[in-house]
Amino acid sequence: MPLVALTGGIASGKSTIAKLLAERGAVVVDADAIVREVQAPGSAVLAAIAREFGEVLQADGALDRAALGALVFGNPDRLAALNALVHPAVRAESERRFAEAFASDPGAVVVYDVPLLAEARGGDAWDLVVVAHAPEDVRVRRLVETRGLSEDDARARIGSQASDAERLALADVVIDTSTTLDETRRQLDELWQRVSGTR
Fold this sequence. Notes:
alpha/beta, five-stranded parallel β-sheet, 5 strands, 10 helices, globular
């Protein structure tokens, strides 16, 4: 019953890897989806964010992510304050989902799709840490071409995250996504054999 952490910087191909693992039968627990859930209107976490940061709610009571992002982006102290509010709730919910998956199927391969592993949960006892990796220039090009960012904005987004060196230092397995999808699939086949016990 392996518990696998899958991480990678923005535009690293992590989401593609998560999708490919799910197609092979993994139970994927998405940290970003949990973040959205614990910050839902009426939640204790959202109330705490509003107390800490002020006017960051939309008229319907939902979090104004752009407003909050403007307050924390490039401000390590404010980002740390936000993380201190959000991460404990995300951790508790993710652990509940891991336990639920293993209770349902003791032989499950559970993959935690977590972009901020290096920043938030690098010390956990994962059975395997998988890092999606592509050089910065490749990731910048992807952000410009697929998300419409300027090159400066793309580099700023990448620079606001953990460095490649910090992520790679956690890795048991590195999936290089800088070439073709077929090559990524080949690497995924090798990984799946390792974590699922298939040969």
